[in-house]
C-alpha cells in the first residue's frame, strides 16, 4: 500500500463480480465462483490469480464480532506530534505499532498527523490504554478522541 | 464463553486468515477435529463473521484517499439517517462511521486523482443533507491496517 501508483490494473465486468464476491467472502472456491458467474473453474482461478499477482486482491482479513469478544468500545484517535523530524516520525510509528489495542495506524495530512483505531473492552479500559500507552508515546503533542457509535462498510466503486 | 483453546485458534486465524482448518489446528496445538468443531461453533455463534478479501484500491488506480470528518445539524430530527442514506449512494464512499465526540460522522472516500476528488467533493459530498461543517484529512500512508485485536 505504499509507493507511487504504477499503471492501474484494468478490470472487466467479470473481474468486478469476482472481486465483489471475494471481498464479501474470500473462502469461496474458484469452482463455486465459476458456477455462480458462468465460468469454468480454471478460467475463474486464472482471473483470481491475476488479481492477486497485480496486488488488487491484497490479502484476507478475519472479520470478528468484537463486541462478542468483549471489545465493547472502538475509539478513533487523532494525534498531533509535538516535533516532526523524520526520526521522530519513525520512532513514533515503531512505538505505536507495538500497542496491541491499536488496530490501524494511518499517517495523514490535515489537522492531525496520525489517525489510530483503538479497540478497548470498555471506557475505563480505553482510558488505561490512552493514559499508559498513547500519551506516553515519543513525540505526542495533542490527542483527540471520538468514540464510534456505528460503522458501515461499503463495497466501493466496482 | 470463549476458552483458551478458542482464543488460540482465533489468534492464529487473525494472523493468517488464509490458513486451512488443519493448519490452524496444528498451530493452536489441537486435533483437526476439535479445531474444526470449534471453528464451526464460533461461526454459528456469529463470533466469526467471515473472511473478507482485501482490495488494494491503489492498484486499481485510486491514488487519493481522504477522511471527511463531518458535523451535522442535529436540530434536524433525521439528520443522521438522511445523511447516511445519501452517502451510501456514492460509489466512492468505502466507510461510514458515526461518533460521539466533536465529530458526528466520518466518510472514508477514494478517488482516482485530485481532480476526481474535487469532482466527488463538490458534486456528491457537498450536496448531502444536514452538513454544517466538514474537514478533510488526506491519507499519506498506512502504517498498520490488519485490524487485529489482542485475544
UniProtKB/TrEMBL annotation, chain A:
<dbReference type="GO" id="GO:0043565">
    <property type="term" value="F:sequence-specific DNA binding"/>
</dbReference>
<keyword id="KW-0238">DNA-binding</keyword>
<dbReference type="GO" id="GO:0043200">
    <property type="term" value="P:response to amino acid"/>
</dbReference>
<dbReference type="InterPro" id="IPR011008">
    <property type="entry name" value="Dimeric_a/b-barrel"/>
</dbReference>
<dbReference type="InterPro" id="IPR036388">
    <property type="entry name" value="WH-like_DNA-bd_sf"/>
</dbReference>
<dbReference type="InterPro" id="IPR000485">
    <property type="entry name" value="AsnC-type_HTH_dom"/>
</dbReference>
<dbReference type="InterPro" id="IPR019887">
    <property type="entry name" value="Tscrpt_reg_AsnC/Lrp_C"/>
</dbReference>
<dbReference type="GO" id="GO:0006355">
    <property type="term" value="P:regulation of DNA-templated transcription"/>
</dbReference>
<keyword id="KW-0804">Transcription</keyword>
<dbReference type="InterPro" id="IPR019885">
    <property type="entry name" value="Tscrpt_reg_HTH_AsnC-type_CS"/>
</dbReference>
<dbReference type="InterPro" id="IPR036390">
    <property type="entry name" value="WH_DNA-bd_sf"/>
</dbReference>
<dbReference type="GO" id="GO:0005829">
    <property type="term" value="C:cytosol"/>
</dbReference>
<feature type="domain" description="HTH asnC-type">
    <location>
        <begin position="11"/>
        <end position="72"/>
    </location>
</feature>
<keyword id="KW-0805">Transcription regulation</keyword>
<dbReference type="Pfam" id="PF01037">
    <property type="entry name" value="AsnC_trans_reg"/>
</dbReference>
<dbReference type="InterPro" id="IPR011991">
    <property type="entry name" value="ArsR-like_HTH"/>
</dbReference>
<protein>
    <submittedName>
        <fullName>Lrp/AsnC family transcriptional regulator</fullName>
    </submittedName>
</protein>
<dbReference type="InterPro" id="IPR019888">
    <property type="entry name" value="Tscrpt_reg_AsnC-like"/>
</dbReference>
<dbReference type="Pfam" id="PF13404">
    <property type="entry name" value="HTH_AsnC-type"/>
</dbReference>
Automatic annotation (TrEMBL), chain B:
<dbReference type="InterPro" id="IPR019888">
    <property type="entry name" value="Tscrpt_reg_AsnC-like"/>
</dbReference>
<dbReference type="Pfam" id="PF01037">
    <property type="entry name" value="AsnC_trans_reg"/>
</dbReference>
<feature type="domain" description="HTH asnC-type">
    <location>
        <begin position="2"/>
        <end position="63"/>
    </location>
</feature>
<dbReference type="Pfam" id="PF13412">
    <property type="entry name" value="HTH_24"/>
</dbReference>
<dbReference type="InterPro" id="IPR011008">
    <property type="entry name" value="Dimeric_a/b-barrel"/>
</dbReference>
<dbReference type="InterPro" id="IPR019887">
    <property type="entry name" value="Tscrpt_reg_AsnC/Lrp_C"/>
</dbReference>
<dbReference type="InterPro" id="IPR036390">
    <property type="entry name" value="WH_DNA-bd_sf"/>
</dbReference>
<dbReference type="GO" id="GO:0043565">
    <property type="term" value="F:sequence-specific DNA binding"/>
</dbReference>
<keyword id="KW-0805">Transcription regulation</keyword>
<protein>
    <submittedName>
        <fullName>Lrp/AsnC family transcriptional regulator</fullName>
    </submittedName>
</protein>
<dbReference type="GO" id="GO:0005829">
    <property type="term" value="C:cytosol"/>
</dbReference>
<keyword id="KW-0238">DNA-binding</keyword>
<dbReference type="InterPro" id="IPR036388">
    <property type="entry name" value="WH-like_DNA-bd_sf"/>
</dbReference>
<keyword id="KW-0804">Transcription</keyword>
<dbReference type="GO" id="GO:0043200">
    <property type="term" value="P:response to amino acid"/>
</dbReference>
<dbReference type="InterPro" id="IPR000485">
    <property type="entry name" value="AsnC-type_HTH_dom"/>
</dbReference>
Amino acid at each position: 500500500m505504499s509507493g507511487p501508483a504504477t499503471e492501474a490494473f484494468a478490470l472487466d465486468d467479470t473481474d468486478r463480480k469476482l472481486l465483489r464476491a471475494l471481498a464479501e467472502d474470500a473462502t469461496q472456491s474458484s469452482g463455486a465462483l465459476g458456477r455462480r458467474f458462468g465460468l469454468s473453474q480454471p478460467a475463474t482461478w486464472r482471473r483470481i490469480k491475476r488479481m492477486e499477482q497485480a496486488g488488487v486482491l491484497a490479502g484476507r482479513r478475519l472479520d470478528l464480532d468484537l463486541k462478542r469478544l468483549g471489545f465493547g468500545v472502538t475509539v478513533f484517535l487523532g494525534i498531533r506530534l509535538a516535533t516532526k523530524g523524520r526520526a521522530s516520525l519513525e520512532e513514533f510509528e515503531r512505538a505505536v505499532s507495538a500497542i496491541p489495542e491499536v488496530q490501524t495506524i494511518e499517517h495523514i495530512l490535515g489537522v492531525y498527523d496520525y489517525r489510530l483505531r483503538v479497540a478497548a473492552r470498555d471506557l475505563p479500559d480505553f482510558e488505561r490504554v490512552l493514559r499508559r500507552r498513547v500519551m506516553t508515546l515519543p513525540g505526542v503533542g495533542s490527542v483527540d478522541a471520538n468514540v464510534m457509535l456505528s460503522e458501515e462498510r461499503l463495497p466501493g466503486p466496482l | 464463553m470463549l476458552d483458551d483453546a478458542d482464543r488460540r485458534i482465533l489468534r492464529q486465524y487473525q494472523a493468517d486468515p488464509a490458513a486451512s482448518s488443519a493448519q490452524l489446528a496444528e498451530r493452536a496445538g489441537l486435533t483437526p477435529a476439535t479445531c474444526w468443531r470449534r471453528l464451526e461453533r464460533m461461526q454459528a455463534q456469529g463470533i466469526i463473521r467471515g473472511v473478507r478479501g482485501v482490495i488494494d484500491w491503489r492498484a486499481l488506480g485510486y491514488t487519493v484517499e481522504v477522511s471527511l470528518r463531518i458535523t451535522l445539524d442535529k436540530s434536524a430530527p433525521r439528520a443522521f439517517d438522511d445523511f447516511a442514506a445519501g452517502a451510501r449512494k456514492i460509489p466512492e464512499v468505502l466507510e461510514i462511521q458515526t461518533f460521539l465526540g466533536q465529530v458526528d460522522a466520518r466518510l472514508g472516500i477514494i478517488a482516482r486523482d485530485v481532480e476526481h476528488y474535487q469532482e466527488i467533493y463538490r458534486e456528491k459530498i457537498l450536496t448531502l443533507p444536514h452538513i454544517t461543517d466538514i474537514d478533510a484529512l488526506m491519507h499519506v500512508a498506512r502504517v498498520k491496517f490488519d485490524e487485529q485485536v489482542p485475544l
